[in-house]
Amino acid sequence: MKKYKSINDLREVQVFNNFLKLTEIPRPSFKEKKVSNYLKNWAEKLNLNVKQDDKFNLLILKDGQNGGENKEALILQAHLDMVCQKKDGFDFDFDNDPIPVQIDGDELNTGGKTTLGADNGIGVAVIMSILEDKEMSHPPITAIFTTVEEDDFSGVNNLSKDWIIGNRAINIDNSKDDEIIAGSNGGAGVTFSLKINRQNRKFKNIFKIKVSGFLGGHSGEDIEKGRGNAIITLSRLLEKLEHSIEILDINGGTFRLAIPRECYAIISTDLDKNEIDNILGDFEKELHYEYNSFSDTICVKSEESNSEQEAIKSEDFNKIINIIKLYPNGIFEVDPKNHVVISSNNLGEIKIEDDCVKFINEIRAMERSQVEYTYNKISTIAGIYDGNVEIYAEYPGWRFNPNSKLRNIYKEIFEKELNKKLEIKVSPAGLEAGYLINKNPSLDIISVGPNHTGLHSPSESANIPSVINFYETFKVFLREID
């Protein structure tokens, strides 16, 4: 396959040309108006039937062509928004700046600066390329582009049932070209809030201490990969320092759907910088031993601070540390048959707002009862420490369908064309399929896509050969499907 050495060269490939246009349009969750309007105008110029609702979801219809006119309609679906994560210290505005793309061998990425938006921009670009291609053969296409998938699923949740035109659908939101997703977890966001009191007392020195360099990643797909949690790690350090410090502030993580990569605290202490740095250095060595597979990126450091905040009362400091120690985080249950995580939780953020500490997390589980059980655990901890708990952004799981005709057809065609076996899996992440099935219980749906890695982190990367091969094979699939 041709090697692409520049972004301009890559624009010669139809699917990448469309994706690179998307990287120039800001599209955080809840702020998809620009990209939705862009696609609406784009579809109208192609003389396609297009509808936009008040959530900025889009429905675009294209007739079957070149032998596919009388075939059964096929729904193609992807979401418009992206997770916005950036490297600590990198100056970037996701509301206004284009994504800083680069080519690194066979990979398209940002050089570790920001998320790329391949999740789910590649899926959107694949569907765009199909809609604008007049040469390929395909059945009638119902293209559905949704919003806010990366937060509360309010786009697909509010989607009109009338837009589900057809009884078979492909969600192009998977990140591995050798698998077919045939089920996924449901879940919910949870915020645990704890009121704190402050006292007009500080020790002599004020420092910002920070744990950084954890790999982060997708709170569903990567929860089982042993990447650590910077919030929990910092709490361990604070506990070591407990009798020598007071906390003025604590902040870690940026999004409940991303495993936290950094966490910091502002502390006051009578210890000098050398004493603090010696303790932090010993702790860093412990972490390097524990996380030896990526120890070269982990850093624990201090810097002097001029914060004027008052210290959190010691009893509330103790509450914060104890809550983090008790907080349910990580994997709870794995399906022994499919070896997939079916119950987990990610403590994704901690921050102080208006003298209230907020612990923000994402529960994921196949069954609603499992989500409720983890929520009840958090509620129990809140009851012990006089906190409040709010649950929101709930979304349904997607149960495996053993009789999927669409899955069998896709598997047969792709295995033949790519000359490799495709695995059928249930995803630990949450996908929109559960909502679509709720709106049309007879819907036969799968989730597929080309290779992209580092989802929900600045290391996100799309594999160029995989994207091209996937798209070319997908065209064969559209031609041959009944």
From TrEMBL:
EC number: 3.4.13.18
Coiled-coil residue windows: none
Enzyme class name: hydrolase
Catalytic activity from the UniProt record: Hydrolysis of dipeptides, preferentially hydrophobic dipeptides including prolyl amino acids
Keywords: Cobalt, Dipeptidase, Hydrolase, Metal-binding, Metalloprotease, Protease, Zinc
Keyword Protease tagged: yes
Domain Peptidase M20 dimerisation, first and last residues per copy: 211-289
GO biological process: proteolysis
Cofactor(s) required for function per UniProt: Zn(2+); Co(2+)
GO cellular component, one term: cytosol
Signal peptide feature range: none
Cross-referenced Pfam families: M20_dimer, Peptidase_M20
GO molecular function: metal ion binding; metallodipeptidase activity
Similarity section: Belongs to the peptidase M20C family.
Protein name, as recorded: Cytosol non-specific dipeptidase
Organism this protein belongs to: Peptoniphilus harei ACS-146-V-Sch2b
Organism placement in taxonomy: Bacteria, Bacillati, Bacillota, Tissierellia, Tissierellales
